[in-house]
Amino acid sequence: MIYRDSILDWAIIGGGIHGAYLANALIRHHVTRRSDLRIIDPNDESLAEWKRVTANVGMEYLRSPKVHHLDTDPLSLKHFARCRECSDDDFIFPNDRPSLGLFNEHADSVIEKAGLDELYIKGFAADIRLENDHAVIITEGDTIRARHVILAIGRSGALNWPGWARRAAADGAGICHVLEGSFCRDQIPKGGEIVVVGGGMSAVQTALSIADNNRHVTLLSPHSLRQNNYDSDPGWMGPKYLNQFRNISCYRKRRRVINKARNSGTITPDLKRELTKSQNRNKCGVTIDSVENCSVLTNDLMLLNLKSGETLAANHIVLATGYENRCPGGDLLNGLISNFHLTCSECGFPITDSSLRWHDRLFVSGALADLEVGPASQNIIGARMAAEKIVCK
Ligand SMILES: Cc1cc2nc3c(=O)[nH]c(=O)nc-3n(C[C@H](O)[C@H](O)[C@H](O)COP(=O)(O)OP(=O)(O)OC[C@H]3O[C@@H](n4cnc5c(N)ncnc54)[C@H](O)[C@@H]3O)c2cc1C
User: Fold this and answer.
1) Omega before 375 cis (within 30°)?
2) Among 9, 200, 226, 372, which is most exposed with the fewest C-beta within 10 angstroms?
3) In this structure, is the dihedral angle defined by the CA atoms of residues 303, 59, 259 and 223, taken in order, positive or negative?
4) Which pTM does this prediction carry?
5) Hey, what long-range contacts does 82-90 have (CB within 8 A, 24 or more apart)?
6) What phi and psi values does residue 313 have, to the nearest 5 degrees?
7) Under a CB-based contact definition with an 8 Å cutoff, are residues 389 and 371 in contact?
8) Measured on CA atoms in the order 221, 57, 69, 160, is the torsion positive or negative?
């Protein structure tokens, strides 16, 4: 294969939402030719991680509006829906949020049109060496050379498993994490009491999608359910807030601003209404409390001891506790940082220039670009924001 004998212009590590968007943008803006670009990802198909986690939580509509998608033209999804003669059910109020089905169909069509599947190299980048005029990417079966590398690795390797949950799993409890690769709905018992732990979108979507006539679900949230239409204020997608953000020279302060601006652990009002309906039908209950520890009586009967002193019995526990706050990338990132003296902030995330360049050969997107792109960096729109910086470098 051609990439084995030559040096590519660009290689993107990660074929998720960000990797696919960036590949499409590099081609569409004539930054590189298709033949000079590859996307490296361990999955069998593009967007595998996105499709898996959104299916796992039972998501029906995106939280983001219809102008946030995989194509470079913001109106592309709107035109796609019109050509498909989509029904009103394919968008939800407010902000015309698209159904997951429509979003995925559109994403697949963007990938097909740009021929991105042909650019995939299946593999997990275990190591990257940065040399004078190119980088060397090493996977289990390949060595790939490229003059520019973009890290678009998402957060999938860093799920948040609270300490009590780890201990319970080790004791044989029936417990799983809804964002885990191995998660499968069939592992949840068909009846009985299921406890879903978490208080954000994923937790409520999971609770609603598994509650039925035979299963009663208790949503165990550490805080009262807070409502917000957005992951962060739309002002964070443009100059309204970003101009001031970029003037902050202290990265510790930038992190504080990002954490405050993200509406973590909030749900959209439509989801709150669905939950109330489900509560009224006695399919779902909501308990505001936190777990102190979990006694495993048998592998399908657990007793959760809560901070309030109450107890909650569960036949199965589903964690919807999201990702850890630490920087993703594990050994790959640790190796890069120590071998090539790459700079990081106190929070462990990369400090890049304004083009998201971390090293002459290396760019970042998604979570890794937090400190430059701001609170929306991990969202779909964050891919467009990252592409604008990298493409205009
Ligand atoms: C349930 C859920 C719903 C969401 N809904 C929305 C929404 O409605 N709107 C919105 O804007 N955002 C949403 N988000 C946030 C965000 O848009 C998604 O998480 C999105 O998938 C992030 O894209 P990504 O490309 O950064 O990461 P991913 O989609 O996780 O892709 C990263 C890819 O990189 C691969 N990878 C990792 N390490 C390596 C390596 N070393 N070598 C090779 N490949 C590697 C992974 O296998 C993966 O395929 C949601 C997130 C979740 C979890």
Assistant:
1) no
2) 226
3) negative
4) 0.96
5) none
6) -90, 145
7) no
8) positive
- DSSP code at position 327: P
Degrees (nearest 5) of the Cα angle 50, 54, 55? Answer: 115
CA trace torsion 66, 67, 73, 78 (10° rounding): 30
Asked if residue 208 lies in contact with residue 336, where contact means CB atoms within 8 angstroms, the answer is no
| Ligand 1 contact via 356 beta carbon (within 6 Å) | no
Which of 121, 177, 380, 385, when mutated, tests ligand 1's pocket best, judged by the most ligand atoms within 8 Å of its CB?
A: 380
Which two three-digit tokens encode residue 322?
Answer: 């999201």
Asked if residue 154 has its Cβ within 6 Å of ligand 1, the reply is yes
pLDDT tens-digit series, residues 184-218 = 999 999 999 999 999 999 999 999 999 998 999 99
Other Cβ atoms closer than 10 A to 147: 16
The string of DSSP letters for 208-230 reads HHH--SSEEEEEEESSPPEE-SS
Distance 155 CA to ligand 1 centre (A): 6
Q: Which amino acid is at 221?
A: S
Q: Do 348 and 326 form a contact (C-beta atoms < 8 A)? A: yes
Could you give all domains of the chain from N- to C-terminal order, each with its CATH number? Answer: 2-157+325-391 (3.50.50.60), 163-228+263-319 (3.50.50.60)
What phi and psi values does residue 5 have, to the nearest 5 degrees?
-105, -5
